Amino acid sequence: MFSVVKYQIIYHRGHRGKLQRSEEEKPPLDPATARERVFQRAAKLLAAKQRSVEELRERLLASRGATKTNVDEVIARLRDYGYLDDAKFAQSYASLRLRERPIGRRRLERDLWLKKVDKQTAGIVLDEVFEATPEDKLIDQAIAKRLRLRGKPGTREDAKKLFDHLIRQGFAFELVSDKIRSLMKRDMD
Fold it and tell me: Which domain holds residue 149?
């Protein structure tokens, strides 16, 4: 008997069409092959950039042949090898972000939340990072940079724009209002 296998032409960016079996015709993967594919996918994802455990888990579960047990086994293996650690990831991510530009604790906390780092780990890391570089120093850097770019606020509207900018950067409301008040008071004197 002859079996009919459907093929379709797949076009990749800038490459010629390539014949591949259509998705519904592919045979199911055996568990060992599926686990190996999930591991290879995880290695590729981690080679591209560092990721948190949950972020990697989400990406792996979306790939073909990945099951919850396969993904959990692969993540456990990567943790054993030392390639996956949320505390190290959060530490390097937070310190890199602060070296790039001065931002506040709230913004960094939100960014870590978006990277799916758990709250407890993020809190510990943020305490360490902001102990090394206090938020007062960071807000002074942010204000100095903004003043270099836009000049000193001459009107109340300009001061409000600076205030809003600093709030968007994640600095605490009280800290921002104190710094803006002292800046405006110096200008008046």
Answer: 140-188
